[in-house]
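Operator note (shift B, R.M.): manual run for PCDGH protein requested after the automated queue skipped it. Running by hand, logging everything below so the morning shift can see what happened. Input copied straight from the record, untouched. If output looks odd, do not overwrite the archive copy; leave it for review.
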Amino acid sequence: MIESTPPGTRFPLGSGRDPDIGVNSLKNYQLTPNPLFSLVVSESPEGMKHAELVLEKNLDREKQRTHHLILTAVDGGDPVRSGTAQIKINVTDANDNRPVFTKEIYKVRLLENLPEGSLAFQVKATDSDEGTNAEITYSFSDISNSARQLFTLDSRTGDVKVTGPLDYEEGKYYEASVEGKDGGGLSAHAKVRIDILDVNDNAPTLSLLPILNPIPEDSVPSTVVAVINVRDRDSGDNGEVNCNMVGDLPFRLEPSSENTYKLLVLAKALDREEAAFHELVLKASDGGEPARTGTARIRVAVLDANDNAPVFSPAEYTVRVPEDVPVGTVLVTVTATDADEGMNGHVKYS
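Run finished. Output pasted below as returned.
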């Protein structure tokens, strides 16, 4: 009997035979008491008695696959004689059970550097039916295009594998729905949330906004030369950045706001005549393990200020001149130099 057989269905049973006649012949049938089955006995016009098994309640193969009954035929003699037959009822499967997922929501955490082809996780559903009614096929029933490019679902095993590059900075989490459908067409659904975990795969980057470059050499201390913005696409400690300047130069870095620094002139005076420009190397390091670094270079040119007086060489000239020297004769040539440049270094004599 298939388990979907409706109650009230009758199943004819074989007829008993008794060679005796009259009251000594077959009189009735009896059935082992059972809540699921009953017995109906009918009599033909010829006086033959026939037994039918009647299903009283719904069968459930998942609770009980087989039922054993005993049919007894009794005569009307004295003493009463009887014969028995065993009835074995095999309950065959109907697709009356939906698949059931082991979890309503699968929550998964994956590192963003998980290699392509790796097994991310597995969804699993069970079905109490048997045969093809218990064979489950898996598929994504609701998934975004971005997630579909990163994950594939094995329809037979429920394995979800990584098929694209994960990037925390591009997508921090993905959500999808998974369907499990049995061979009879019944289905179940479960939700999936995949959280992508950050790894320190991005080095800090520095961007420079020049404010005063070139800078006059007589600039006052704390003059702002440039603003430096530092960024790291990672999160947490991996995105915490510290910036400093390499070398001993007449400049300093001062934090301005989050991820922003000001490049300032130190109290030490600039001297163009000593250094016409300065090559600055800025280095930013994040808090990852191991840490990643980024660098930027800036060339600061120093503008001349008229901070140098002309200098004669030598400082004193002694000239001996004959008293009869003709008018217009060059007696001596004096020379002065100025360390400044441009008009500041152009010397006039008087």
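Quick read of the result: The chain is about 0% helix and 45% strand. Residues 145-148 form the longest helix (4 residues).
Leaving this for review. - R.M.
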